[in-house]
Specification:
The chain is α+β, with helices and mostly antiparallel strands. It has five helices and seven strands, in the order αβαββββββααα.
Length: 184
């Protein structure tokens, strides 16, 4: 196979991040239109990510946030975005570079983008196909978590998945069900 000197893989990743940047910029300016909302999965240990030590401890590798009803101070730059969110009724400010984002999903439009953060870390040399990690999309993660959370009997589940620390769940991040935020 011929060597790719142009690096189409990196160009495509940059173009897709530009789509996410444009969407978030518009939302910061005018708010979320219609039923649109976003699940954004990012690497918590990536360079430039700024989250509280409490969140870093709870999500040491990756985390998925939901931008829907309760967010504030969304600011978007060329390099990333800042947002205010509440976790267990504690307000937090997050700073996330676009290079740390692994997935962007808008369920209202069934629109999903997946990124490979390692391509940004080493743009000079592509990873061999055997080493490229299959990305778990927020939609797939949510479906898998919903299946795992189904009780075997007719009893109701004891606690919401969002309250369980990632370390206890045996993975790096939780996908929080929107039902956890809806008023009953």
């Amino acid at each position: 196979m011929a060597e790719d000197h142009i690096r189409y893989d990196i160009l495509v990743q940059e173009a897709l991040r530009a789509v996410m940047r444009k969407v978030l910029t518009e939302v910061a300016r005018t708010g979320l239109p219609g039923n649109h909302h976003f699940f954004i999965t990012f690497m918590t240990n990536a360079p430039g990510v700024r989250i509280s030590s409490r969140l870093q401890e709870r999500y040491p590798e990756q985390m998925t946030i939901v931008i829907q009803y309760q967010y504030w101070d969304l600011k978007v730059s060329e390099a990333g975005f800042e947002i205010g969110l509440s976790f267990s009724d504690i307000p937090e400010k997050l700073e996330i570079p676009f290079s740390a984002v692994r997935g962007f999903y808008d369920p209202s439009a069934n629109f999903e983008l997946e990124f490979d953060p390692r391509q940004d870390a080493d743009a000079s040399e592509p990873a061999p196909p055997a080493e490229v990690e299959t990305l778990k999309s927020p939609r797939a993660a949510k479906k898998q978590d919903a299946e795992a959370a189904k009780p075997a009997s007719k009893e109701k589940p004891k606690a919401a998945k969002s309250e369980q620390p990632a370390a206890e769940a045996g993975k790096g991040a939780d996908v929080v069900s929107l039902d956890a935020f809806r008023k009953k």
